[in-house]
Amino acid sequence: MLVVVDLRQRLGMERAPTQEQSRILVAAVRGRRLGLLVDEVLQVVHLLPSRIQEPPAEVKTERSELVAGVYHLGERLLIVLHPERLLLLDRTPAPRAT
Question: pLDDT tens for residues 61-87?
Fold first, then answer.
């Protein structure tokens, strides 16, 4: 059994029905495998941890504790999330089992 956390719920967004393009990303956090339900995966990239920067004030919100930093990839600015904080945050709704 894999516990799956809905990313929309963790980010305080409205739930959306699961679609054909929805995916479950599997992550190991504190030695435990957990799934993260996302709307879609367009690309998987390898990021160098040394290039993750402090997020600018423009991307900071009440959920900023979930943001590890930002990453410049060519012309794109990626927001990098803390997997541990995202998946194991106690004050958000409990994960649902699938």
Answer: 777 788 889 999 999 989 888 888 877
Q: What angle do CA 57, 91, 30 make, to 5 degrees?
A: 90
C-alpha 35/C-alpha 37 separation (Å) is 6
User: Listing from the earlier edge strand, what are the strands of the sheet with 23-29?
Assistant: 23-29, 32-38, 3-6, 96-97
The H or E element containing residue 72 is strand 67-73
Which contacts qualify for 64-68: CB closer than 8 Å, 24 or more apart?
65/89, 66/10, 66/11
* Domain positions in the chain: 3-97
Number of H helices, E strands in the chain: 2, 6
Confirm whether pTM is higher than 0.90: no
